[in-house]
Amino acid sequence: MSGRRLPFVDWLRGIGVLIMIEAHVFDAWMRLPDRATVHFKYARILAGWAAPTFLFLAGLSLTMAMGRQLGKGGSARDVARSGLRRGWRIVGLAFLFRLQSVLLSGGTLRTLLKVDILNVMGLAMVATAAVWSLGRRPWPRALLLILAAATISLVTPLVRLAGWPEPLPDALEAYLRPVAGRATFTLFPWAGFVLAGGAAGLAMARLVDGDSQRRLMGWFAGGGVVATALGYGLSWLPSPYVDSQFWTSSPTFFLLRCGVLLLALAGTWALTPQLTGRWTTLGRWLTTLGTSSLFVYWVHIEIVYGLISRPLHARFSFYETVLVYAVFVVAVYGMVRLKDAVLTRWSGGDWFGTSAEPLRPLSS
User: Fold this and answer.
1) Are residues 3 and 360 in contact, defined by beta-carbon separation less than 8 angstroms?
2) Which structural domain, as residue segments, surrounds residue 158?
3) What is the rounded average pLDDT of the residues 258-268?
């Protein structure tokens, strides 16, 4: 196998970047009256797919990298420690990101301790590496990760209503369930996507040739259809929980989203001939954005929500926001290309690439 990355994983991550930018630009820059329109409703539904995509791919990339380390002769203990370190590094970056926000746009200790996607991603990667270490072979490890993801999803409605987290400080309770002004994401249910992605990554780490890749993508597509249909069908049945909101805490929506993510992974793989052929420009754009997803997240959040863009907050109509979004994507792409050129010239490395090791393609 060559040293290049698995292109379809980067393409899917690049699609996630485009959705992420859409989510934040529409949230910060669209004027309030336009948010009552049906167009904004659908824009919000699309925006909701950014976080699951990034979390799922973080888990997938983590266990793929761990599987490669193990295949090169690393001990299970050393591989698990490596996975744990990766997770804790993301947690450290989460606090560094918040510190940057406080320094550039102002804030308090409350701002610094706010729980966001990087906090959840890092801790979930730590959990994924820990669960991985409990197994001795790939399939038992995958089963443990699936069970852990399912458990997180199933107990989420219970954690939302439980009394035991109340004595915890708000900064800690916010990791478990929403606390006003304290959390954008919580471990329940969002950590489950990292664990589910980890199970998929274990399967992908065992691929050795193009035929096995095609077979696995067929299984992913079939499993995605079943999970999506099952999640959707179960959503129409009476809930066994006292309170479970479909769009936030429902296990049925978690299952549906995992199914769609598997379909998206298989679908992006199926588009390989197009994205390396007649759609090659689009493929290059998605690759560029996907391989620098952390950099894009880091930079664009401050631009969209920070003091630098305050005159643009809640200013544009829906269609104006669509145009502004397109221009902003081009600007972000330019920043990534500039970053890549500078780092290549000065250090030959990428300080702000994705959180996982490079993913290798398989020969056809």
Assistant:
1) yes
2) 7-346
3) 98
Look up residue 353 and give its DSSP letter: S
- Cα–Cα distances in angstroms (integers) from residue 328 to residues 94, 237, 249, 300, 335, in the given order: 24, 42, 32, 9, 10
At residue 358 the predicted structure's pLDDT band, cuts being 50, 70 and 90, is very low
- pLDDT tens by residue, 69-120: 998 888 999 999 999 999 999 999 999 999 998 998 887 888 899 999 999 9
Query: 14 CB contacts (<8 Å, ≥6 apart)?
Result: 285, 286, 287, 288, 289, 290, 293
How much of the chain exceeds pLDDT 70, in percent?
93
Q: How many CA atoms lie within 13 A of 339 on its CB side?
A: 21
What three-state secondary structure class fits 363?
A: coil
Residue owning tokens 């659908």: 42
Does any domain span residue 68? yes
| 338 occurs within a structural domain | yes
Q: Among candidates 77, 81, 25, 17, which has minimal Cα distance to 49?
A: 17
CB proximity list for 306: less than 8 A, separation 6 or greater: 101, 104, 105
User: Please, what sign has the CA dihedral across residues 62, 179, 308, 38?
Assistant: positive
Instruction: Please give the span between the terminal C-alpha atoms of the chain, in angstroms, as a whole number.
Output: 10
CA distance 30 to 165: 36
Single out the residue of 310, 312, 307, 311 nearest to residue 323, CA to CA.
312
Domain presence at residue 198? yes
- Domains held by the chain: number: 1
Tell me the per-residue pLDDT of 321-355, one tens digit each, with 9 for 90 and over: 999 999 999 999 999 999 999 988 887 554 444 44
Residue 358 placed within a domain: no
Burial class (CB in 10 A: 0-12, 13-18, 19+), 305: middle
Q: Residue 212: which pLDDT band, with cuts at 50, 70 and 90?
A: confident
Q: CA 312, CA 328: separation in Å to the nearest integer?
A: 13
* Beta-carbon count within 10 A of 324 CB: 17
Question: Distance (Å, rounded) from C-alpha 53 to C-alpha 45?
Answer: 14
